[in-house]
Amino acid sequence: MEELFATDRLRELLPRIHEFVQQELVPLETAAYLTGPFSRVAPLLDEKRQRVKAAGLWGLADPVSEGGRGLTLCEFGQVSEVLARTPFGHYAFNCQAPDIGNRELLHRFGSDELKARYLAPLQAGDIRSCFSMTEPDRAGSNPTNLGTTAVRDGDAYVLNGRKWFTSGADGAAFAIVMAVTNPEAPPHRRASQIVVPTDTPGFRIVRNVPLMGEAGDGWLSHAEIEYADCRVPVTNRIGEEGAGFALAQERLGPGRIHHGMRWVGIAERAFELLCRRAASRDLGDGSRLGDKQFVQGWIAESRVEIDAARLLVLRAARRIDERGAAAVREEISGLKFYVAGVMLHVIDRAIQAHGALGLTDDTLLAFWYRHERGARVYDGADEVHKTALARQILKRFQ
Ligand SMILES: Cc1cc2nc3c(=O)[nH]c(=O)nc-3n(C[C@H](O)[C@H](O)[C@H](O)COP(=O)(O)OP(=O)(O)OC[C@H]3O[C@@H](n4cnc5c(N)ncnc54)[C@H](O)[C@@H]3O)c2cc1C
């Protein structure tokens, strides 16, 4: 725990969460679960979820009014780091993306009817959801550039379009779909977010898109989806018509803290693997890997980079808690690309230190290499965040 950001309830909670992760989840890190379909490990994780509930550790990400623990973003970030030590930590505690973001969206902007129908079972862990915005034929880096439409027909919207990289759509109960409802409005007021149950006629998963050689299934997959004349009630819209982009912005601020701290947790665990390997690998000439200055450099640089990354994310989280996400946009952009880069760099150094072993599934490193490379692309590609940050800074010099 980072003492600068510690609170009394974290001092009580974090050791318990850490112990649960070590005792119950780390033993699941076998090649069978890391390389097999998610459906193989899902029943075990459902059992673990019951144990999380029995241990009184459920609802860490939810507000008190919704039956959760009401942690601040800065507190939850520190929980997220601990959960990220193992690939299924967030899922076992029902804190996984994209459900955690969808819950927050429904909590803040959903109608009472949407909350009753979708938020309550999400919080109970009875259903999963997905967020369907990116399209194969349009540059996702420009969120106003959507082809999917939702046309009003009486008291219904009729949705048509094609999405891809809708994470976790396979097996989800509903999708929150970004679709154009107001084509004549200014670009940032054209789209709305609409709940589409996955059993709606016209909703079709075309395929789970293979990512680094793995199509995956269930929560650990990214679907291409066709929406063909999907008809849903107008009351399935979240917030105002045309507010989709603004809602997406609201969702992304805290979302980047969640990702950032998850990446810090992964980096920390990869760092431990790096150090253990450096300290133990005998090179057969009387020296160990850790005696080499190259490797010492990796270790020293990784240590400082991870610490800097953690401080950057927690500072931004605290400021979001105090002032709201809009006031700390620059810091959020900065941490998004910096922390993703640190995590990937540390994983890569750890793989290199393990030699051929690092490329196998006998350690966690290859799993993370496959599943986390996307960190520099999703939620805003590095280049988009860097130019956004630089533009803001340059304004102050003009
Ligand atoms: C693992 C993973 C999970 C995802 N999950 C979801 C999900 O659940 N729901 C969902 O809707 N989407 C999801 N996405 C999609 C993700 O949000 C998009 O990939 C992202 O927004 C980038 O859009 P794009 O892929 O169309 O790339 P493009 O917009 O085509 O950009 C390609 C590249 O061009 C460069 N670039 C783009 N714009 C600029 C610019 N202005 N300046 C400089 N360079 C630029 C960047 O290097 C960028 O990586 C996921 C993606 C991944 C990899």
Keywords for this entry:
Butyryl-Coa Dehydrogenase, subunit A, domain 1; Butyryl-CoA Dehydrogenase, subunit A, domain 3; binds flavin-adenine dinucleotide; Butyryl-CoA Dehydrogenase, subunit A, domain 2; 3 domains
General description of the model:
The chain is an alpha+beta fold and 398 residues long. It has 3 domains: 3-124, Butyryl-Coa Dehydrogenase, subunit A, domain 1, CATH 1.10.540; 129-238, Butyryl-CoA Dehydrogenase, subunit A, domain 2; 245-395, Butyryl-CoA Dehydrogenase, subunit A, domain 3 (Up-down Bundle). Helices cover 50% and strands 15% of the residues. It is built from 13 helices and 9 strands. Strands 2, 3, 6, 7 and 8 form a 5-stranded antiparallel sheet that branches. It has a 4-stranded mixed sheet with strand order 1-4-5-9. Helix 10 runs antiparallel to helix 12 (365-372). It is globular and about 80 Å long. The mean pLDDT is 96. Bound molecules: flavin-adenine dinucleotide. Flavin-adenine dinucleotide binds at residues 98, 131-134, 139-141, 165-167, 222, 374, 377-378, 381, 383-384, 387. Flavin-adenine dinucleotide (FAD) is lined by residues 98, 131-134, 139-141, 165-167, 222, 374, 377-378, 381, 383-384, 387.
